[in-house]
Amino acid sequence: MTTIDNESTQFSLQFSKTQIHCRSTLKCKFMIGNWLGFYRYNNKHIQKIKGFDKTYFSLTINSFDGNNFKGTVTDDTSTGGMEGTGEVIGNIENEKIFFRKFMHKKTFIIDTKGTRKISDVPHPTLYYSGTFTPDKMEINGDWKFNYTIGFLFGFIPIPYRPAKGTWNIHLVKDK
Predict the structure, then answer these.
(1) Which residue, 107, 128, 131, 141, has fewest beta-carbon neighbours within 10 Å?
(2) Same structural domain, 131 and 151
């Protein structure tokens, strides 16, 4: 629950069963900033084909209203990440975070050697969920694709989830 006074200089944010009172909106903007982290696949075979134990990424949160946030994400291509800069849109519910990752170019592996192909078609949406550490400086969680339809023998529809895995990020402190 967020309440904002008429002057937008003092508000309170209900977070993780603790009420945080702020004298300025800046103190309650803990999400805004640069976050660094990694993701990996749960399927060890896919992770091995990618050729990296972890894929690193940076996340920049540009706007946060106490519940909802928006930002940009860039994967590290030198650790198997997707090319280009994507967008994230999400929300916070208590100590949980949920967001969708939208990448503008689809990157996929086309063989067991890890050969990658990049297409101008948007990558399927990735769904992230996670939990903050008590100090709100780190998040651990899971990511997944939604189920999609594949075809067995070219004509028998079968629902499947292309991949899922885990992720971790931490807030980069300003010096």
Answers:
(1) 131
(2) yes
Whole-number pLDDT of residue 138: 96
Which token pair is 81?
């990440």
Examine the domain organization and report whether 119 and 157 are in the same domain.
yes
Q: Could you give the 3-state DSSP secondary structure of residue 32?
A: coil
CB–CB of 89/127 below 8 Å? no
Domain count, the chain: 2
d(CA 12, CA 21): 5
Say whether both 50 and 35 belong to one domain: yes
Same domain flag for 19 and 50: no
Could you tell me the pLDDT band of residue 24, with boundaries at 50, 70 and 90? very low
pLDDT digits (tens, 9 = 90+) for 84-140: 999 999 999 988 999 999 998 877 777 777 777 888 888 889 999 999 999 889 999
Residue 58: helix, strand or coil by DSSP?
A: strand
CA distance 90 to 70: 6
Which structural domain range is residue 127 located in? 31-171
